[in-house]
Specification:
alpha+beta, 2 domains, five-stranded mixed sheet, 8 helices, 37% helix
Length: 262
């Protein structure tokens, strides 16, 4: 498998789908949103974008499986699996807040080999492939070199359902706010992760995520020299759906804080 060539083809597919989303953003009617659950919104833009991605990615690896947010396809693959979020940051998109994008990852035998995250408003394409560097618009990116929390800017996400862990999360958030330059909540985990990969954020933490939220972003962080853990400090984040992604230098300090509350 030529991962670099395949990644180039994925980027073209993602860019084409991004053009569709941008066009729809100019004329989006908020009355057309649907609710999948409490505060969990979806629109025809999400669904159509996913269909476009699936139709084109199927041509690259015909027998690959798919894990997709909007469930336009549900298929198990023996070797390869695409993990897709067609519009990460749907709530931002619906409200006209310019922070959303597309996330596509390819897993081979359970391990990531390609990750692509396209932030649509700034036109920034983040990507990496097995054996290659992490890049943004063809320029190599690396995680930051900040050595400790007191010199760092952090990112997180807030739960919008399943609030049972909210009390300890708020305690953790309070501590992180007091010990760092600040904590940002953009509202799109894939964007938070690639911003960590390129050094804009020094670390990102969030729980109750879905695989399509972080599959591509976590891989890009690791390819950029960063580290990714679950809240226990292990590597079972894919199943636990809780993420701590750091520049590597903050991992121990942040895990000590997280373990107090989770």
């Amino acid at each position: 498998m030529n991962y670099e060539l395949l990644c180039t083809k994925v980027i073209s597919i993602v860019r084409l789908t991004g053009n569709f989303i941008r066009k729809e953003a100019l004329q989006f009617d908020v009355q057309k949103i649907e609710y999948k659950g409490l505060n969990d919104m979806v629109s025809y833009v999400d669904k159509t974008a996913e269909q476009k991605l699936v139709q084109n990615l199927e041509k690259l690896i015909p027998d690959a499986g798919f894990i997709t947010e909007e469930k336009t396809i549900n298929r198990t693959g023996k070797t390869y699996t695409w993990i897709i979020d067609p519009l990460d940051g749907t709530t931002n998109f619906i409200h006209g807040i310019p922070a959303y994008g597309i996330s596509v990852a390819l897993y081979e035998d359970g391990l990531p080999v390609i990750g692509v995250v396209y932030e649509l408003n700034r036109g920034e394409m983040f990507y990496s492939y097995k054996g290659g560097p992490a890049l943004m618009n063809k320029k190599e990116i690396k995680v930051s070199t900040n050595p400790d929390l007191k010199s760092s800017l952090l990112a997180t996400g807030f739960p919008y359902y399943q609030f049972d862990k909210q009390p300890q999360y708020l305690k953790l958030l309070t501590e992180m706010m007091q010990k760092s330059h600040g904590v940002r909540r953009i509202g799109a985990a894939a964007i938070d992760l690639v911003y960590t990969a390129c050094g804009r954020f020094d670390a990102f933490f969030e729980y109750n995520l879905q695989q399509w939220d972080f599959a591509a972003g976590c891989f890009i962080v690791q390819q950029a020299g960063g580290e990714v853990y679950d809240f226990s400090g292990g590597n079972d984040y894919f199943e636990k759906r809780e993420i701590l992604a750091t520049n590597g230098k903050l991992s121990a300090e942040m895990l000590t804080a997280i373990k107090q509350y989770f």
